[in-house]
TrEMBL record:
Keywords: Kinase, Signal, Transferase
Protein source organism: Acrasis kona
Source species, domain of life: Eukaryota
Name the UniProt record assigns to this protein: nucleoside-diphosphate kinase
UniProt: ATP binding residues: K20, F68, R97, T103, R114, N124
GO BP: CTP biosynthetic process; GTP biosynthetic process; UTP biosynthetic process
Residues of the full protein shown: 50 to 211 of 211
Residue ranges constituting the Nucleoside diphosphate kinase-like domain according to the UniProt record: 12-150
């Protein structure tokens, strides 16, 4: 059994991703999940949540000194639901960030989620954990252990050499 926050450095590494309110409203959830799944990453946790200010503040705790923090917390906690997700696979934390693009969508390469789907930094559609340690903290913040599945993916033998 895999610990629910994953095993960094293995094919059971896990990351936290979240479709932000703009992505939900623009009906991009399916597109985002599709990109991660077709890469070979496994969706092991999924729920729609309308986070309160407390949850969003905890999530963005490291940014509280930044000038945009207040607006960010307000936006994320008062614009309707987000879709919280846990994805599993080798390198999913760092490569998930590559697939997302950089923070500013206008600096994100085409082919990335933000590069293809977003324009503004304050409406950049998706969150992804920035490192394996934050990934474990964020999974624990947004999900209970029983909300993350232990899935034996039948395609695994065709995605991984071993
Ligand atoms: P991320 O890891 O790429 O999402 O970026 P950060 O962790 O640095 O920031 C978290 C979120 O805050 C970003 O995804 C943006 O939505 C928002 N943000 C970051 N920098 C800025 C900024 O300069 N202005 C505004 N308005 N929002 C920002
Ligand atoms: Mg970040």
């Amino acid at each position: 059994n895999v610990p629910y926050q994953g095993l960094p450095g293995t094919k059971y590494e896990r990351t936290f991703m979240m479709v932000k309110p703009d992505g939900v409203q623009r009906q991009l959830t399916g597109e985002i999940i599709k990109r991660m799944e077709t890469k070979g990453y496994v969706l092991v946790g999924l729920k729609m949540v309308t986070p309160d200010e407390k949850l969003v503040s905890q999530h963005y705790d490291d940014l509280k000194a930044r000038p945009f923090y207040k607006g960010l917390v307000k936006y994320m906690s008062s614009s309707g639901p987000v879709v919280a997700m846990v994805f599993q696979g080798k390198g999913v934390v760092d490569y998930g960030r590559v697939m997302i693009g950089v923070t500013d969508p206008l600096k994100s390469a085409p082919g990335t989620i933000r590069g293809d789907l977003s324009v503004d930094v304050g409406r950049n559609t998706i969150h992804g954990s920035d490192g394996t340690s934050p990934a474990q903290d964020e999974i624990a913040l947004w999900f209970k252990p029983e909300e993350v599945a232990d899935i034996k993916n039948c395609a695994s033998a065709w995605i991984y050499e071993k």
